[in-house]
Amino acid sequence: MQTNVIPQGSCPGPQRHQSLGRREILRAGLGGFSSLTLSQLFRLRAQAASSPHQNTAIILVWLRGGASHLEQWDPKPEAPAEFRGPYKAIDTNVAGIRISELLPRLSKIADRYALLRSVAHDAGGHPAGSLRVLSGDPDRADKPKPVYPDWMTVANYLRDRPGRVLPNYVAVNPVDRYDNFVIAGAGHISSAFDPFRVTGDPNQPNFEVPNIGLKDSSQLSRLEERIALRKGFDQLRRDLEGSPLVDAVDDFQRQAISMLTSSEAGKAFNLSREPDAVRDRYGRHQWGQQCLLARRLVEAGVEIVTTEFDGPLCARPSNWDDHAVNNHVFNANKYRAPYYDQAVSALIEDIYARGLDKRVLVVVTGEFGRTPRISYSPSSGGGEASGPKGTVQPGRDHWPRANSMLFAGGGIQTGQVIGATDPRGEDPVERRVTPYDFLATLYHHLKIDFDPRLSVEFNGRPIPSLQNGEPIRELSG
Fold this sequence. Notes:
Strand 19 (about 455-460) and strand 20 form a beta hairpin. The protein has 14 helices and 20 strands. The protein is α/β, with parallel strands linked by helices.
């Protein structure tokens, strides 16, 4: 296996590097380029040489808070009453595969995805669980921010390349925080490889992505004038001819300028270009339009897209953290399921219908599952899917010992279930898979081939996700 080993010292450490990121340059907009000083330009991160473009992409749908595997992909209708919950298991269009009755649309396209029912780890807090799944951090303790870079940043670091019009990594409703904890980020890699962030509700009629594809000719003219000011640096630049840092600055600014001026970039982010029937099929709600935007972006050439399902569509807690104190777990899942079912099924169907299924891998997961044994506690407050304060209601708590994931597209073998949990859904009893295997699978799809026996490091600091785990062989196309 050919291994992409990152050279020691190839990425400046956090103490030596205070670069401006893509977001900062784009946020500067029309006024930014005239205010950048030469010293600021020199502080930009020199981009590492990227691996050859492999024409693959990943869309991650992140269920912040940890969704109940029993109410989605691993129902246990024969379990004792204190475990099973009120919902039935229904047949899918693949013989032998049954999922929750809350997901009727997804039940009709089980031949287009694979279910992994045996993911397990030991990081039980939201921050620690998220860091384990997204970055391979082996620590069981919650920490305020990542120490290790997440897989998205690692892939962006290795796969980004000069000459791009669109960014290589876009976060649509970003996967980034859990309350006051940062659960994803660059860690000790430069923040220059953070995602281009798209916030707001894409379903709103006034939704737009700022600083993308300027439409006003006078604005474009002013921007061109500011770009021309860079000519004043020509003599200094000739003195530094051949410096890789200067070359990196050129590439970095060129992409930022392209984002501001390119009609191609403007089109990729413009949902109004989609037919009404397509937008309706995804659902005229935030999750549906987030998924539609994700599909548009990978189709336009973006390789890494993440989108988080949270907010009002999740019922009272605005996430999937279904403790009884937060909400009534069964009412909450019934409330959010139609939005979830519609958005994810439309995304999967569209990936196949548009011929993207060989190169685009869709992954749906959160940081862990929920306790199979139902708990009861007084509600901390009323709201959607939660009784008035003090109402005793059912919930499910954190459960890293068992989680289910969905994989679709990516040239994988679909229409299958990998692994199994015991009759109560508590622990894997067949094909136990770790988050390290999950991460290795994502890197394998992106054709980033690391030998887990080697110590792969950024600036002398290890990335544990690359030292453990093997790609999930059952998913191989």
